[in-house]
Amino acid sequence: MDMLGDLESLQFEYGIQEEDRSWLYLQGRSRGLMIKSCAHATFFCKLLCNLRESFHEKQTSSCLSTGVVADIPNDDELKVGIIGGGHLGKQLARVLLQLVPIPAENLRISTRRPEALDEFQNLGIQCFYHNPQLVDWANVIFLCCLPSQLPNICLEIQTHLKKDHIVYSFVAAIPIARLKLLLNHTSILRPQYQCVEEWVSIWGTNKDITAALQDPVILQATCPFSSAGGITLNSKWLEGVLYTVLNVCTARDVPHLQALQRLNQLLLSVHSAACGKDGASCPTLELRDLVSQVYSKNLPQRRPFPWFDLTAVQLKETPFSQHLSVSPALQDHLTYRYCDSFGISLTKEQQPAVSTGSASQ
Q1: Residue 306, preceding bond cis, omega within 30 degrees?
Q2: Where is the Pyrroline-5-carboxylate reductase catalytic N-terminal domain (predicted)?
Q3: Residue 198 pLDDT class (50, 70, 90 cuts)
Q4: Which numeric CATH code is attached to 28-51+76-233?
Q5: Closest CA to 75 of 255, 283, 252, 282
Q6: Average pLDDT in the 255-273 region?
Q7: Domain residue spans in the chain?
Q8: Are 213 and 35 in contact (CB under 8 A)?
């Protein structure tokens, strides 16, 4: 029992003057941004893990069909690197460990103070200060550093980035076009959040982030199309996630029809009760929803999708963004899939309100 936990003199608000208390809402907003950021990174990593697992299962099935019965090592496990061991970096590491879950041996942290991360080193996570070494090892690199540190970090790692490395930036002050120049790289995801005027804090104060994301109310507020809790996510992030999945398939020379099938299985495999038993009325993604009509007509069946510039996807209109904006059913199914990945099943009545407005880039 924490005997000091309820002492008023130890609370955050105790030393704040009465005239300054109107600013306390910023504490809840900061917590909401942290929860949303960790939730969306978790969902993204879950998708990539599921995709890589499907590759491994197919390889195993192929070997068994040829009479090879020995265990096949899974070289497709996702390797995640975090640059930055501050508050965000540590919270992200905890969430990825517990909710994806990423095995400790598949998560590494590069920070200027690795000695301050005993909690993670005791779990078997390698913590050190060598950003290029981290990039050489990882598949996905999360940037959790300060804006002032980012130019030097980009200079260190840009020559170590391969085409299929995915950089996921939480550095809100650096726009994605600038990141592209700093890294000389196009496989970059950068979620953009916007705080709305109607602020109602639902994010809680005492639960850690992992526990908060197991609360159905909080989890539903993090849905990509939800404005609950006063924070919205630019829908272009979801487009970036979708085209990232296609790029992973392209890197493995997966024919585009097979890649499209995997994409539908990953994102649209969870249905509501309103879909009926056969799911015939459920949306599915077609080739024309992802690439231009001219390109789709001239794409040979066994050819992979083209390599997509993820920075351009998040800055410009795409066939998918046009399709998504006019398809509430698709938005519904993506919401169901998102919540299901965290173990929460939504009914139609529980579905969060959809916000289709996009924040400016």
Answers
A1: no
A2: 79-171
A3: low
A4: 3.40.50.720
A5: 252
A6: 89
A7: 28-51+76-233, 236-270+283-350
A8: yes
